[in-house]
Amino acid sequence: GSSAVPLAQIIDLHLRSKSLPTHGNLSNTEEDVPTVTALHEFQHQKGKKWYSDATAYWEETENCPATVDGVLGGFAELSPPDVKGSLPFIDVLQSTFEVGNEKACDIGAGIGRVSKLVLLEKFRTVDLVEVSSRLIRAAPEYIGDPRSKDCRFMCLGMEEFDFGTAKYDVVWVQWVIGHLTDEDLITFLNRAAAGLKPNGVIVVKDNVSDAEAFWVDEDDSSVTRGREYMTKLFDLAGMEIILQRESDEFPKEIFPVPMY
């Protein structure tokens, strides 16, 4: 609809006001996309295919074996430093911000790597939400007994998941938010917020592109956004950033991975 244009313009204006680039690149053609407005048009032309292409990508074993190495795109070695950054982040949320330890929601859960190594260490129960039936089917065995009994496994796209009301202490959104268009990201955050308990929080841990406003991965249908682009969307969704950490444990050659 026409509502897509103003949002993109707001972001373009915001980036310009900070003297930041508004352009990005497409992964395969390396074509330059001059503005966020042009990115929205690109996604708009794809229509429903933007999401169905992503689902098809993750369903394909060749692209993503149902292993830690697979879900991390061949970078299994990123898992230990990732976990090392996430656990203390939750400690601070629970000690300083009085976030509870009952129930977490793992968005884009894959085989349950984050649930097993992070969330189940800090919360009693976890709901795993994953669009790929192939990956989520592998999750109970990967998590193993007895903890898999403390989990619910749901095969749904994050844009369709119903959070319910006041259920979760944390909604954990890691390495998946780029699959949502900007409009859907704002709605998603609002729905997730409605699903939080009084002291509940949403955690977004994801790559950011420092050199340009965004980078489009045409293979898995996702966008890596720049920091200001991402945080502007949080702002437009009415979210407040209460805690932010850089993930210093990661190798320098990958995109930075802040946690919000």
Major beta-sheet overview: 5 strands, parallel
How many runs of DSSP E, i.e. beta strands?
9
In terms of per-residue confidence, which ranges show pLDDT below 50 for 5 or more consecutive residues?
none
- Gyration radius, rounded: 18 Å
Helix content: 25-40%
Question: What is the helix/strand order?
Answer: HEEHHHHEHEHEEHEEEH
How would you sum up the global shape?
globular
* Averaged pLDDT: 95
Task: List the strand order in the largest sheet.
Answer: 5-4-3-6-7
Distance between the termini: 30 Å
Percent strand: 15-25%
How many helices? The count is 9
Helix/strand-derived category reads alpha/beta
Produce a short descriptive summary.
The chain contains nine helices and nine strands.
What labels would you give this structure?
single chain, about 260 residues, alpha/beta, 5-stranded parallel β-sheet, 9 helices, 9 strands, about 20% strand
Structure description:
This protein is of the alpha/beta class and 260 residues long. The protein is 39% helix and 18% strand. The chain has helices at 4-17, 36-46, 49-59, 68-71, 79-96, 113-122, 133-143, 182-194, 227-236; strands at residues 24-26, 32-33, 103-107, 125-130, 151-155, 168-174, 196-205, 214-217, 222-225. It has a five-stranded parallel beta sheet with strand order 5-4-3-6-7, sandwiched between helices. Strand 4 (125-130), helix 7 (133-143) and strand 5 form a beta-alpha-beta unit. The longest helix has 18 residues, at 79-96. The radius of gyration is 18 Å and the shape is globular.
